[in-house]
Protein backbone atom coordinates (compact mmCIF):
# COMPACT_ATOMS: atom_id res chain seq x y z
CA UNK A 1 0.00 0.00 0.00
CA UNK A 2 1.38 3.38 -1.01
CA UNK A 3 0.31 6.74 0.39
CA UNK A 4 1.57 10.30 0.56
CA UNK A 5 1.96 13.14 3.02
CA UNK A 6 -0.27 16.04 2.01
CA UNK A 7 1.46 19.20 0.66
CA UNK A 8 1.27 20.86 4.06
CA UNK A 9 4.63 22.63 4.54
CA UNK A 10 6.84 25.17 2.85
CA UNK A 11 5.85 26.69 -0.47
CA UNK A 12 3.07 24.12 -0.82
CA UNK A 13 1.27 25.17 2.40
CA UNK A 14 -1.57 26.71 0.46
CA UNK A 15 -5.14 25.85 -0.51
CA UNK A 16 -4.08 23.17 -3.05
CA UNK A 17 -4.33 20.42 -0.43
CA UNK A 18 -7.81 19.49 -1.65
CA UNK A 19 -6.65 19.30 -5.28
CA UNK A 20 -3.73 17.06 -4.37
CA UNK A 21 -5.90 14.79 -2.19
CA UNK A 22 -8.51 14.31 -4.89
CA UNK A 23 -5.96 13.70 -7.64
CA UNK A 24 -3.84 11.34 -5.53
CA UNK A 25 -6.87 9.19 -4.73
CA UNK A 26 -7.86 9.13 -8.40
CA UNK A 27 -4.33 8.02 -9.33
CA UNK A 28 -4.57 5.12 -6.87
CA UNK A 29 -2.99 6.29 -3.61
CA UNK A 30 -4.07 4.28 -0.57
CA UNK A 31 -3.55 6.85 2.20
CA UNK A 32 -2.94 10.56 2.86
CA UNK A 33 -1.14 11.91 5.92
CA UNK A 34 -0.47 15.11 7.87
CA UNK A 35 2.17 16.18 10.36
CA UNK A 36 2.10 18.67 13.23
CA UNK A 37 4.49 21.61 13.43
CA UNK A 38 3.56 24.71 15.39
CA UNK A 39 6.49 27.14 14.96
CA UNK A 40 10.04 27.25 13.63
CA UNK A 41 12.23 28.77 16.35
CA UNK A 42 14.85 31.27 15.16
CA UNK A 43 17.37 30.05 17.74
CA UNK A 44 16.26 26.51 18.63
CA UNK A 45 17.64 24.92 21.77
CA UNK A 46 17.02 21.55 20.11
CA UNK A 47 17.27 21.20 16.34
CA UNK A 48 15.28 18.93 14.09
CA UNK A 49 16.41 15.35 14.78
CA UNK A 50 19.73 14.77 13.13
CA UNK A 51 20.69 18.46 12.96
CA UNK A 52 20.99 21.61 15.06
CA UNK A 53 18.61 23.72 12.97
CA UNK A 54 14.93 23.77 11.96
CA UNK A 55 14.16 23.01 8.28
CA UNK A 56 13.12 26.08 6.32
CA UNK A 57 10.00 24.20 5.19
CA UNK A 58 8.61 24.35 8.75
CA UNK A 59 8.35 28.14 8.60
CA UNK A 60 5.03 27.73 6.78
CA UNK A 61 2.69 24.98 7.90
CA UNK A 62 -0.98 24.25 7.23
CA UNK A 63 -3.10 23.24 10.21
CA UNK A 64 -3.28 19.41 10.32
CA UNK A 65 -6.94 19.17 11.35
CA UNK A 66 -8.09 21.49 8.57
CA UNK A 67 -5.87 19.64 6.10
CA UNK A 68 -7.48 16.33 7.08
CA UNK A 69 -10.94 17.86 6.84
CA UNK A 70 -10.20 19.18 3.34
CA UNK A 71 -8.92 15.77 2.27
CA UNK A 72 -11.94 14.03 3.79
CA UNK A 73 -14.30 16.30 1.88
CA UNK A 74 -12.87 15.51 -1.57
CA UNK A 75 -12.05 11.79 -1.20
CA UNK A 76 -14.07 8.63 -0.70
CA UNK A 77 -11.62 5.75 -0.33
CA UNK A 78 -8.17 6.68 1.02
CA UNK A 79 -7.37 6.37 4.71
CA UNK A 80 -6.48 9.65 6.42
CA UNK A 81 -3.60 9.56 8.88
CA UNK A 82 -1.58 11.78 11.18
CA UNK A 83 2.14 11.19 11.63
CA UNK A 84 2.05 12.59 14.16
CA UNK A 85 -0.03 14.94 16.28
CA UNK A 86 1.95 16.14 19.31
CA UNK A 87 -0.38 14.89 22.04
CA UNK A 88 0.75 17.08 24.99
CA UNK A 89 -0.14 20.28 23.09
CA UNK A 90 -3.87 19.49 23.24
CA UNK A 91 -6.62 19.17 25.80
CA UNK A 92 -8.01 15.62 25.45
CA UNK A 93 -11.63 16.69 25.04
CA UNK A 94 -10.68 19.19 22.32
CA UNK A 95 -8.48 16.69 20.49
CA UNK A 96 -11.17 14.02 20.72
CA UNK A 97 -13.80 16.40 19.33
CA UNK A 98 -11.68 17.34 16.32
CA UNK A 99 -10.69 13.76 15.54
CA UNK A 100 -14.25 12.51 16.01
CA UNK A 101 -15.52 15.08 13.52
CA UNK A 102 -12.93 14.03 10.93
CA UNK A 103 -13.69 10.33 11.42
CA UNK A 104 -17.43 10.93 11.08
CA UNK A 105 -17.02 13.23 8.06
CA UNK A 106 -14.76 10.71 6.31
CA UNK A 107 -16.99 7.73 7.00
CA UNK A 108 -14.50 6.09 9.37
CA UNK A 109 -11.22 6.50 7.46
CA UNK A 110 -9.10 8.14 10.18
CA UNK A 111 -5.78 6.77 11.51
CA UNK A 112 -4.73 9.21 14.23
CA UNK A 113 -1.05 9.01 15.10
CA UNK A 114 0.26 10.56 18.30
CA UNK A 115 3.72 11.45 19.54
CA UNK A 116 5.48 13.48 22.24
CA UNK A 117 7.34 16.07 20.13
CA UNK A 118 10.93 17.25 20.48
CA UNK A 119 11.00 21.08 20.32
CA UNK A 120 11.02 22.93 23.68
CA UNK A 121 10.13 26.18 21.90
CA UNK A 122 6.99 24.64 20.39
CA UNK A 123 5.89 23.48 23.83
CA UNK A 124 6.43 26.99 25.17
CA UNK A 125 4.31 28.41 22.34
CA UNK A 126 1.60 25.83 23.02
CA UNK A 127 1.61 26.56 26.76
CA UNK A 128 2.38 22.91 27.52
CA UNK A 129 5.03 21.46 29.88
CA UNK A 130 7.99 19.87 28.09
CA UNK A 131 8.94 17.56 30.97
CA UNK A 132 7.32 14.13 31.43
CA UNK A 133 5.94 14.08 27.92
CA UNK A 134 5.67 10.29 27.95
CA UNK A 135 3.45 10.45 31.02
CA UNK A 136 1.31 13.07 29.31
CA UNK A 137 0.91 10.79 26.28
CA UNK A 138 -0.14 7.89 28.52
CA UNK A 139 -2.75 10.09 30.17
CA UNK A 140 -3.98 11.31 26.79
CA UNK A 141 -4.53 7.70 25.71
CA UNK A 142 -6.53 7.06 28.88
CA UNK A 143 -8.65 10.16 28.33
CA UNK A 144 -9.34 9.42 24.66
CA UNK A 145 -10.39 5.88 25.56
CA UNK A 146 -12.93 7.24 28.03
CA UNK A 147 -14.24 9.97 25.73
CA UNK A 148 -14.61 7.67 22.74
CA UNK A 149 -15.97 4.53 24.38
CA UNK A 150 -18.09 5.61 27.37
CA UNK A 151 -21.06 7.90 27.86
CA UNK A 152 -21.13 9.76 30.14
CA UNK A 153 -17.36 10.14 29.84
CA UNK A 154 -15.04 11.30 32.60
CA UNK A 155 -11.33 11.65 33.29
CA UNK A 156 -9.45 12.78 36.38
CA UNK A 157 -5.70 12.76 35.88
CA UNK A 158 -2.51 14.60 36.72
CA UNK A 159 -2.64 16.93 33.72
CA UNK A 160 -6.29 17.05 32.61
CA UNK A 161 -9.75 16.70 34.12
CA UNK A 162 -13.08 16.02 32.44
CA UNK A 163 -16.10 16.03 34.76
CA UNK A 164 -18.73 13.37 34.00
CA UNK A 165 -20.21 14.58 30.70
CA UNK A 166 -22.59 13.42 28.01
CA UNK A 167 -20.67 13.12 24.73
CA UNK A 168 -23.13 11.54 22.33
CA UNK A 169 -21.19 12.06 19.10
CA UNK A 170 -18.78 9.14 18.81
CA UNK A 171 -16.38 8.21 15.98
CA UNK A 172 -17.70 6.26 13.01
CA UNK A 173 -15.17 3.52 13.78
CA UNK A 174 -16.11 1.44 16.78
CA UNK A 175 -15.13 1.22 19.48
CA UNK A 176 -12.78 4.03 18.36
CA UNK A 177 -10.32 4.91 15.59
CA UNK A 178 -7.09 2.88 15.67
CA UNK A 179 -4.42 4.85 17.50
CA UNK A 180 -0.89 4.84 16.08
CA UNK A 181 2.19 5.93 17.99
CA UNK A 182 5.61 7.06 16.87
CA UNK A 183 8.41 5.35 18.77
CA UNK A 184 12.17 4.94 18.69
CA UNK A 185 13.41 4.49 22.27
CA UNK A 186 12.84 1.20 24.13
CA UNK A 187 10.28 2.78 26.47
CA UNK A 188 8.33 4.25 23.56
CA UNK A 189 8.45 0.97 21.62
CA UNK A 190 7.15 -0.86 24.67
CA UNK A 191 4.27 1.62 24.91
CA UNK A 192 3.32 0.73 21.34
CA UNK A 193 3.19 -2.94 22.26
CA UNK A 194 1.22 -2.30 25.42
CA UNK A 195 -1.27 0.27 24.17
CA UNK A 196 -1.29 1.11 20.46
CA UNK A 197 -3.06 -0.24 17.40
CA UNK A 198 -0.24 0.81 15.10
CA UNK A 199 3.39 1.92 14.89
CA UNK A 200 4.81 4.77 12.77
CA UNK A 201 8.54 4.28 12.15
CA UNK A 202 10.57 6.36 9.68
CA UNK A 203 12.85 5.58 6.76
CA UNK A 204 14.92 8.19 4.90
CA UNK A 205 15.74 8.03 1.19
CA UNK A 206 18.52 7.66 0.25
CA UNK A 207 20.27 7.50 3.63
CA UNK A 208 18.34 5.11 5.85
CA UNK A 209 16.20 2.33 4.42
CA UNK A 210 16.93 -0.66 6.66
CA UNK A 211 14.12 -3.17 7.21
CA UNK A 212 16.38 -5.18 9.53
CA UNK A 213 16.62 -2.21 11.92
CA UNK A 214 12.83 -1.85 11.85
CA UNK A 215 12.51 -5.55 12.60
CA UNK A 216 14.79 -5.23 15.63
CA UNK A 217 12.63 -2.39 16.93
CA UNK A 218 9.48 -4.30 16.09
CA UNK A 219 10.69 -7.18 18.25
CA UNK A 220 10.56 -4.90 21.30
CA UNK A 221 6.99 -4.00 20.39
CA UNK A 222 5.99 -7.63 19.92
CA UNK A 223 7.57 -8.73 23.20
CA UNK A 224 5.75 -5.95 25.08
CA UNK A 225 2.48 -6.88 23.40
CA UNK A 226 2.77 -10.52 24.45
CA UNK A 227 3.67 -9.49 28.01
CA UNK A 228 0.49 -7.37 28.06
CA UNK A 229 -1.62 -10.28 26.83
CA UNK A 230 -2.01 -8.83 23.35
CA UNK A 231 -1.54 -10.38 19.91
CA UNK A 232 1.36 -8.60 18.12
CA UNK A 233 -0.36 -9.29 14.82
CA UNK A 234 -3.04 -6.79 15.84
CA UNK A 235 -0.47 -3.95 15.79
CA UNK A 236 -0.11 -2.56 12.29
CA UNK A 237 3.00 -0.82 10.94
CA UNK A 238 2.94 2.09 8.49
CA UNK A 239 6.39 3.38 7.49
CA UNK A 240 6.94 7.04 6.72
CA UNK A 241 9.52 7.60 3.95
CA UNK A 242 11.15 11.03 4.22
CA UNK A 243 12.59 11.91 0.82
CA UNK A 244 15.81 13.95 1.06
CA UNK A 245 17.22 16.37 -1.49
CA UNK A 246 18.99 14.53 -4.26
CA UNK A 247 16.64 11.55 -4.25
CA UNK A 248 14.82 10.57 -7.43
CA UNK A 249 11.51 8.80 -8.04
CA UNK A 250 13.49 5.68 -8.93
CA UNK A 251 15.38 5.64 -5.62
CA UNK A 252 12.12 6.16 -3.72
CA UNK A 253 10.44 3.37 -5.68
CA UNK A 254 13.36 1.08 -4.86
CA UNK A 255 13.01 1.97 -1.16
CA UNK A 256 9.33 1.05 -1.31
CA UNK A 257 10.27 -2.32 -2.82
CA UNK A 258 13.00 -2.94 -0.24
CA UNK A 259 10.64 -2.20 2.64
CA UNK A 260 7.90 -4.39 1.18
CA UNK A 261 10.33 -7.28 0.67
CA UNK A 262 11.47 -6.79 4.29
CA UNK A 263 7.93 -7.19 5.62
CA UNK A 264 6.74 -3.56 5.57
CA UNK A 265 4.37 -3.17 2.61
CA UNK A 266 2.36 -0.23 3.97
CA UNK A 267 4.30 3.02 3.42
CA UNK A 268 3.66 6.68 2.78
CA UNK A 269 6.02 9.15 1.15
CA UNK A 270 6.74 12.69 2.37
CA UNK A 271 7.94 14.92 -0.47
CA UNK A 272 8.29 18.26 1.32
CA UNK A 273 12.06 18.46 0.80
CA UNK A 274 12.03 17.69 -2.93
CA UNK A 275 8.71 19.01 -4.31
CA UNK A 276 8.47 22.74 -4.95
CA UNK A 277 4.70 23.10 -5.30
CA UNK A 278 1.52 21.04 -5.54
CA UNK A 279 2.00 20.33 -9.23
CA UNK A 280 5.42 18.94 -8.39
CA UNK A 281 3.87 16.79 -5.63
CA UNK A 282 1.44 15.41 -8.19
CA UNK A 283 4.18 14.63 -10.71
CA UNK A 284 6.09 12.68 -8.06
CA UNK A 285 2.95 10.85 -6.94
CA UNK A 286 2.00 9.91 -10.49
CA UNK A 287 5.50 8.58 -11.20
CA UNK A 288 5.66 6.54 -7.97
CA UNK A 289 2.19 5.09 -8.32
CA UNK A 290 2.99 4.06 -11.88
TrEMBL record:
Keywords per UniProt: Flavoprotein, FMN, Monooxygenase, Oxidoreductase
GO molecular function: alkanesulfonate monooxygenase activity
Signal peptide: none
Keyword Flavoprotein: yes
UniProt KW Ribosomal protein keyword: no
The organism's place on the tree of life at top rank: Bacteria
All residue ranges annotated as the Luciferase-like domain in the record: 11-259
Record-linked InterPro entries: Lucif-like_OxRdtase_Rv2161c, Luciferase-like_dom, Luciferase-like_sf, SsuD_RutA_monooxygenase
GO biological process: alkanesulfonate catabolic process
Record-linked PANTHER family: ALKANESULFONATE MONOOXYGENASE, ALKANESULFONATE MONOOXYGENASE-RELATED
NCBIfam families in UniProt: F420_Rv2161c
Protein name listed in UniProt: Probable F420-dependent oxidoreductase, Rv2161c family
Species per Swiss-Prot/TrEMBL record: Mycolicibacterium rutilum
Amino acid sequence: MLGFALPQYGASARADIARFASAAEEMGADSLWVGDRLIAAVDPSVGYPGSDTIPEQFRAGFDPFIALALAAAVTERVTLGASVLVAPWYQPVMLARQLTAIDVASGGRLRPGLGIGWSPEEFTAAGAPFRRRGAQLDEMLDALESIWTTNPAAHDGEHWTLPPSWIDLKPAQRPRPPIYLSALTPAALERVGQRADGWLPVAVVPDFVMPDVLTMQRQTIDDAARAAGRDPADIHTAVRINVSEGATPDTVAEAVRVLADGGYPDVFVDLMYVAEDTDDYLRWAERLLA
